[in-house]
Amino acid sequence: MANIKSAKKRIKVTARKTLRNKMIKSFTRTVIKRVIAACEAHNRAEAQKSLVQAVAAIDKAASKGIFHKNNAARKKSRLAKMVNKVSA
Asked: Is the overall model pTM greater than 0.70, yes or no?
């Protein structure tokens, strides 16, 4: 256990940031799963609507440093490719 005041504060701040990151990452995963489910059900309208939400969530997570920008770009690209395959 930390004895120094600044170390105690760092523990609190880290716990708060970890919770925030976990919430954002969890929401992003949920939205991505919605896109995948709509694609597997061959529901083009739902897939495109979900894709817009997913891209926004991924961009927000990347801007906060939860995902690396290249990781975010890869996720968006794969989802868009999946939705385009359903649309064709």
From this structure: yes
